[in-house]
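Hi everyone, sorry if this is the wrong subforum. Our group has a chain we'd like a structural model of before ordering constructs, and none of us has done structure prediction before. Sequence below.
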Amino acid sequence: MTISGRDGRNGRAAEQARPKAERAGNPARFKLLYESADRRFCLFQDDEGHLTSVRSSKLA
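Answer:
Right subforum, don't worry. Here is the predicted structure as tokens:
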């Protein structure tokens, strides 16, 4: 089974198609959506709308 990207290619081919400088030079941007009252849990959203939950103890 192959997961296709927006351009119809699989994720690895789409990643390799972009210039290396572009891949390395664009870090993801996240927005904090929620932080629990005890500050042990955080919920972030990236620019594409993907959600990520993180235990605060894992953040540097």
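For your construct planning: The longest strand covers residues 30-35. Residues 20 and 33 are 31 Å apart (CA to CA).
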